[in-house]
Amino acid sequence: MFDEEQIIQEIKKSPRPVSASELARRFHVRGPQRREFRKLLEQIARSNRIARLPGKRFTMPSTEKSVVLGRLQITSRGFGFVRPDWGPKQEPIFKGDLFIPQRHMRDALDGDTVKAAFDRVENEGPVGRIESVVERAQPTVVGWYQTRGKKGGVVTPRNSKMDRKINVAPPKKDFGIKDFDWVMVKITEYTRAPDALVGEVVERLGDEEDKGIDVLLVIRDLGIIEEFSPSTLQDAEDLEFDWENDLKDRTDFKNHLTITIDPKTAKDYDDALSIEKLGGGGWKLFVHIADVAHFLQQGTGLDDEALERATSVYPVDRVVPMLPERISNYLCSLVPHEDRLTMSAEIDISPSGEILGSRFHNSVIHSDQRFAYEQVQAIFDGQQPLRSKFEEYLPMLEDLRACAQALRTRRFDRGALDLDIPELNVIFDETGAATDLQFYPRFEAHKLVEECMLIANEAVAQHMEKNRIPILYRIHEVADEDRLEKVAGLLRYFGIKLSSGDGGISQFDIQRALEQVQKLEAGHILPRLILRAMKRAEYDPENLGHFGLASECYCHFTSPIRRYPDVIVHRQLKAHIRNNPLPYDSEDNDLDNLGEHTSRLERRAQQAEWEATEIKSLEFMKRYEGQEFEAWVASVTSFGFFVEIAQHPVEGLIHRTQLKGDRYEMDDLGVMMVGKKTGHSYKLGDKVKVQIMRVDPMARKLELELLEQPELMGRLARKQRKMRSSPQSNRRKGGKRRK
Question: Nearest CA to 97 among 109, 108, 112, 86?
Fold first, then answer.
């Protein structure tokens, strides 16, 4: 038996939260005993003697009923919010997030896991203070350097949420750092706000004029490293094909007509397609995926770095890959006219898009042709030169087209949501300067490939669940009813009914609302509000279904070159096919922590991509300083409203202090800003006219002035009336008439 007190004491002496797997190692728990050990940890947590955090990490609970654990999020204005992780036996003492005034932050920084005390309720919201920091979010900070005499210098963080300077010792001379250079600082002492932090300069990143410095600062500030370690690059270079052994126990699909369909600029091709017609109708679809797991051996240094990265990142003007090019662009790229190792899903599909059966293979393929999305779309659109050039592939493409249409129809019939929100594409010239903003085109060819990948992911997930093989599922939990009800109230203002009234809001209700809002003049604005009400998709070893896809069982299998959860699924499936021991056991290898880790780094990658796109979009908009544009009211907050430029999809804030002639406040629904005296309003979807006053891409700021406000229009009208009624004006009018 395990000693509960020893476990509690081990957690108590740990300076930070400790995972279940780490505790098991400390107590030398192995094999079947781990299941019992985990049950005991959960039992102790339920008794509130220890506190369980996300990712099955444990720490000591709060000793006071008014103290909660949670992650701190600081706003650009200095105050913050803590979202509590209520313990199993901890009765929630307030609703929502805990507001933390700036003066009560202590030494906590944005993203830290903290203990916070609830003090009182103000303005219908809970207010508290930070008691202590449980876990630091990030040990390094990006900022610009300024010399402060012989003792060193001071670094001003790039992140506006960190409203504190960092005092640093003189940097190493070989860094070549001068004033106003951008640097990376390691924090060595966390002081209480508002005092300066203490740190050490560990790297010079560049100066304001360096090409690409803006995006580099984004990714480095989030802890994303572009370069692979020398040992990782060498390990990748040492990998080779060993055809004599590589082809053992593999299904040979080299004689199947096989194609890839990718963007024109793609350098790696990780999926390929084949298809056959079934005798009784329907299709036999083959989805071939690059066998990354064959080269990325578990437990190697190469694998460790891939896991540390967890995902490839695409910050607008560059790629930060999960794997070195040797693997992604050569060994595992399904280039045409070359044999390549794959994992293949063979799926029988009915004419109505239903899975009739599936089989899975360690395989080898020989891709016959590489297509770009634009080429396939041109073929579908009937462009004769391309149809003649690729005549032998036309029957295959038409079969894939028909199969994909059947799959898509069935998916929406069961309640899947059409979340195909246009994605912004920044166009660059040869120097790397932003020259245009466009939305990525969405062709039928894109949807064809998407449907094939979705059904392969679903088929693999169903097979693994049926055979009780532990994997990371791709889950998307049911949307929060409270948040959906709030959106429902907002939509009712626009005449759109979200709830069907039969108990809860279903996927069908949401999809119907999405279709209705598209018909409105500002139909691209409201779908975002619906999407924000839904939960994020994540990775988890427990199958909780996928709400957005209306799928009871779903995983990620189709992109192991750029997503580590897919690698995990591949390893499990490969072992299962060959009747080998499973690399991951739900108890021994802590899939919970892997799910939490990969989900967190996915969110980090999305944040980097969003920030980089915003910076480059604003770089493009800088040429329009001083010009006037029409804009849509895109969202409403307590401090003003954001507008989206109609001609170019970038957003800027109109602060309520800019609104003249009245005191404006947000209404209860969050639909509009309303004047207290006049009743004049600015509501979602309204068109307004704005002038771009100043654009600062590095600071991600677009300063706008709202034109044609009621107060300004009133002043102009009064001035014109006064001029018309004045004697001088009448004389001018009379003089003109006499002429």
Answer: 86
For residues 701 and 694, give the distance between their C-alpha atoms in angstroms, rounded to a whole number.
Answer: 8
Dist CA 235 CA 241 (whole Å) = 14
Cβ atoms within 10 Å of 142's Cβ, excluding its own: 23
Instruction: Give the E-state strand segments of 517-639 in sequence order.
Output: 538-540, 628-637
Q: Does the structure show a pLDDT above 50 at 645?
A: yes
As beta bridge partners, residue 476 has 546
pLDDT of residue 484 exceeding 70, the answer is yes
Residue whose C-alpha is closest to residue 651's, from 489, 442, 437:
437
99, 229, 363 from 349: Cα distances, Å: 53, 45, 21
Query: What DSSP state is assigned to residue 671?
Result: S
Work out the percent of the chain whose per-residue pLDDT is above 70. Answer: 92
For 397-417, the pLDDT digits (tens) are: 999 999 999 999 999 999 999
Task: Give the DSSP H or E segment for 606.
Answer: helix 591-621
Give the 3-state secondary structure of 145-200: EEEECECCEEEEECCCCCCCCEEECCCCHHHCCCCCCEEEEEEEECCCCCCCEEEE
CA distance 208 to 183: 11
Residue found by looking up tokens 């270079």 in the block: 237
Tokens of 290: 């690059």
Assign 55 a pLDDT band (cuts: 50, 70, 90). low
pLDDT band per the 50, 70, 90 thresholds, residue 737: very low
Contacts of 497 (CB under 8 A, 6+ apart): 488, 491, 513
* CA nearest neighbour of 211 among 431, 434, 426: 431
Lay out the sheet containing 251-252: strands in order across: 251-252, 355-366, 339-349, 283-290, 271-277, 259-262, 369-372
Pairwise CA distance, residues 188 & 489, whole Å: 49
Element (H, E) at 346: strand 339-349
Query: Which residues have a Cβ under 8 Å from the Cβ of 623 and sit 6 or more positions away?
Result: none
Q: Which of 173, 175, 181 is nearest to 146 (CA)?
A: 181
Q: What is the CA radius of gyration of the chain?
A: 29
DSSP state of 541: S
Cα–Cα distance, 115 to 82 (Å, whole number)? 9
**Look-up: residue for tokens 């990525």?**
440
Consecutive H or E run containing 342: strand 339-349
CA torsion 110-114-118-124 (nearest 10°) is: 30
Q: Are 341 and 294 in contact (CB under 8 A)?
A: yes
Three-class HEC string of 482-534: HHHHHHHHHHHHCCCCCCCCCCCCCHHHHHHHHHHHCCCCCCCCHHHHHHHCC
Res 266: pLDDT: 82
When pLDDT is averaged across residues 172-180 and rounded to a whole number, the result is: 91
Nearest to 77 by CA among 163, 166, 194: 163
User: 127-151, pLDDT tens digit by residue?
Assistant: 889 988 888 888 899 999 999 888 8
CA-to-CA distance for 155 and 142, rounded, in angstroms? 8
